[in-house]
Amino acid sequence: MAFELPYSLCFLLLLLQLPFSTIAQTYNNISFSSSLTAQEDGNPNWPSPSGEFAFGFRKIGNGGYLLAIWFDQIHEKTIVWSANRNNLVQQGSTIEFSAEGLILTDSATGTQTFISDQTGATGVAYAAMLDTGNLVLATRDSNNLWQSFDHPTDTILPTQTLNQNSTLFAQLTATNYLEGRFMFTLQFDGNLVLYTTSFPLKSTNVDYWSTKTVGSGFQVIFNQSGCIYLTAQNGSILGVISCNATSTQDFYQRATLDYDGVLRHYTYPKSTNTSSHWSTLAFIPPNICTAIVEYTGGGACGFNSLCSHDDEAPMTNCSCPKSYILVDQDDERKGCKQNFVPQRCDKASSETDHFDFQEILYTDWPSGDYEHFKPVNKEWCKQSCLNDCFCAIAIFNDGSGDCWKKGIPISNGKTNSDVKGTALVKIRKENPADPKKKEGLTPILIGSVIMLIGTILVVLIMTYLVIYRIYYRKALVSQLYPVVQGINLKCFTFMELKEATNGFKEELGRGAFATVFKGVLASDNGKCIAVKRLNAMAKENDLEFKAEVSAISRTNHRNLVQLLGFCKEGQHQLLVYEYMSNGSLASFLFGESKPNWYQRKQIALGTARGLLYLHDECSKQIIHCDIKPQNILLDDTFTARIADFGVAKLLKTDQTRTTTRIRGTKGYVAPEWFKSLPVTVKVDVYSYGIVLLEIVCCRKNFEEQALDENQMILADWAYNCYRQKKLHLLLQNVDDDQAMDGIKKLEKYLMIAFWCIQQDPSVRPTIKQVTQMLEGTVEVSVPPNPSSVYVQSK
After folding, report:
1. How far, rounded to the nearest angstrom, does the alpha carbon of residue 370 sit from its chain's CA centroid?
2. Cα–Cα distance list, 115 to 65, 84, 154, 488 (Å)
3. How far apart, in whole angstroms, are the C-alpha atoms of residue 535 and residue 515?
4. What's the confidence (pLDDT) of residue 728?
5. 395-402 contacts: CB < 8 A, separation 24 or more?
6. What gap in Å lies between CA 129 and CA 68, rounded to an integer?
7. Three-state DSSP class for 364?
């Protein structure tokens, strides 16, 4: 559905027919001390005067109760607002109206939560549930002090307005009201945008629809005539989102950001016909499957899954390829996993006969390619994937002869008639027994086999009973302290780390593959530790755990975070590190209190020395692959310590480059990753160059909210300032007289950074040369222009 101005002509006519000012409201006043209780039987609530809406508790499956507003005269009892979507309460919980506002008390914990503002001092006199679906707290002269319309969840209703910085969050699934993976927001800059979120955080990830009204959008209005449109501050209409010619007197209406990421405008006839249902009048974006292409994240349907769109279907369909199954049966957008044993790399060539391909037409998983061949035919593409244990899926384009190889997890999967590629999904063949062999088995042979098995079992049981006591303790220790070959680290039990972290209570940080918790080792004089707990996605193939242990166990340097030990007990995989009391460079650099120039110089030099150790001084050269401020931690003395070796790549002593799939974080990734070229230690030099620019200027490399669009990308802006001799402009975020007075020193650091981020890896200095330039033992020559433009493959 397009966002177009021509609709506004019809829209204005409807506005004239039924302006907001003519809408009358009847109140059923709710007095002080009124309360509702969540209970199994019955459904006590506060209804609106017409009975069309109600406010109270709703039972949500077996999970608890939601304090909500819903359509009360239709069969579905559709919920349009909730107060505790992220924290359901238990049976017996209450909501009470007092002079302080609406207070929710959880019967299980006794916790009290203010649903409305604490308005006792401002003259609140009564509460009321209105026929518009709005719950209000008002003064005696009917001035609203608080209203649910100002705090929307996933739905807006006729007469409701979204102001700048208002946001709708989709619920997680059809039955889980937790804030989910999508958001609809009118930003402070006036742009109305649909985003994917960095779930479970609320932060935005990728925008997949917008009105492109930066600088002009002011309010989203859903009027009584059933039209939803965006206005400027002067009231002029910038564009129509949806417009329904059907009167709200005959139809219920709502606009909901559904759990599949689509904003839909719904209507429902106001009749007593129980067979009626919500009909979709309009929706955005037109096709969610093709609209979302995430650099990080699983796309519209999750990792390894496929998204298909049907205008007639109530929700976008998410499915798994053949021989893949859902990771979570209750959440189809959590992605899919292989339901077979993957191909082993040490036996890839001998196992090719055990695998075949499922061909899926008009299907692609954009991004995630690690190899590209052209021109080839389909059989060549299949054979190349068969011979490659890393290849899980290949995309073949019959028209152009392109073959892209992808490893899991892969994202943005879609099946659509506009897609030109055919997906070749590698699956393991079934291996049924030969029926002729079954027919040849005689009863005598079967009996002999059974007797042999029985004899072996008896011998094994007797042997076990004899030696049980001798080896019991040794077996127990082996079970609790599994050994990782070649690593000499302390092995912790899971219970030991659970106690140290107080049940994994204090979270220090969270990433795509793990969560880090603070802990205290009682057995080591109360020493503080950081415990990294790998999540289910990282555990699936064990690579994340082995990569981190293998990389860090070989290191010992003052500018690297030290690995103290690990736990690998069943499904539990944890890494134990030194605790860094001053957090990450990102929080120190981009927080309210900026580090001074001396601290920034020391951090830059310490980080370079840590990388020098990884590149030149380890027994096996290590490419970190993900240098960024979040992975540089600060100890008690603010010494830089490089962390997070989860994506590190080890190189053999006679190896200088490697071919591998894209790793790292957007904004810090060297351009050769996107060109399917072999990568070297120079990718870390590029990432370090971006970080060095951020350290010097105390701002992020990319700031979408920059006042001047020329300043959005720090690398480009910094080079322009350097070329135009306007370096003082780069210190706007820095309140440091030493830095302001040392423009020459600043210029030197910028020149080093520009050398590091050259597009051609061969032009970049080694990290040893960078360290020497920082220390002043090597002169810094004038750098060429580091172009910020690079082409991503496919």
Report:
1. 22
2. 15, 8, 17, 53
3. 7
4. 84
5. 395/363, 395/364, 395/365, 395/369, 395/421, 395/422, 395/423, 395/424, 396/421, 396/422, 396/424, 397/421, 397/422, 398/422, 400/374, 400/375, 401/374, 401/375, 401/376, 401/377, 402/372, 402/373, 402/374, 402/375
6. 12
7. strand
User: Which two tokens mark 605?
Assistant: 């030099």
Query: Cα–chain-centroid distance for residue 591?
Result: 22
Is 3.30.930.10 the CATH number for 585-775?
Answer: no
3-state secondary structure 404-442: EEECCCCCCCEECCCCCCEEEEEEECCCCCCHHHHHHCC
Q: Residue ranges for the binding site? A: 532
Known binding residues for ATP are 532
Interval 701-714: pLDDT, tens:
988 777 677 788 89
* Amino acid 141: pLDDT: 84
pLDDT of residue 473: 40
Six token digits for residue 251 = 């139809």
State the pLDDT at residue 482.
Answer: 42
Which three-class secondary structure state does DSSP give residue 6? coil
Nearest to 131 by CA among 94, 97, 103, 160: 160
**What pLDDT does residue 272 have?**
63
Residues of the chain with pLDDT under 70: 1-27, 117-122, 245-247, 272-274, 431-445, 466-488, 512, 536-548, 550-552, 554, 645-664, 707, 732-742, 788-794
How many angstroms separate the CA atoms of 247 and 480, rounded?
Answer: 68
DSSP 8-state code for residue 524? G
Fold annotation for 25-152: Agglutinin, subunit A (2.90.10)
Q: What is the pLDDT of residue 542?
A: 62
Q: Which two tokens stand for residue 8?
A: 């506004």
> What are the pLDDT digits (tens) for 133-185?
999 999 888 888 999 999 999 999 999 999 999 999 999 999 999 999 999 99
DSSP 8-state class, residue 465: H
Superfamily in which the 490-578 domain is placed by CATH: Phosphorylase Kinase; domain 1 (3.30.200.20)
Q: How far apart are CA 520 and CA 195, in angstroms?
A: 39
CATH numeric code, 1-23+159-286: 2.90.10.10
Q: What six digits make up the tokens of 62?
A: 């077996």
| Under 8 Å between Cβ of 580 and 633 | yes
Q: Is 635 assigned a catalytic role? A: no
Exactly one of 106, 331, 369, 626 is catalytic; which is it?
626
Is 306-428 in CATH node 1.10.8.60? no
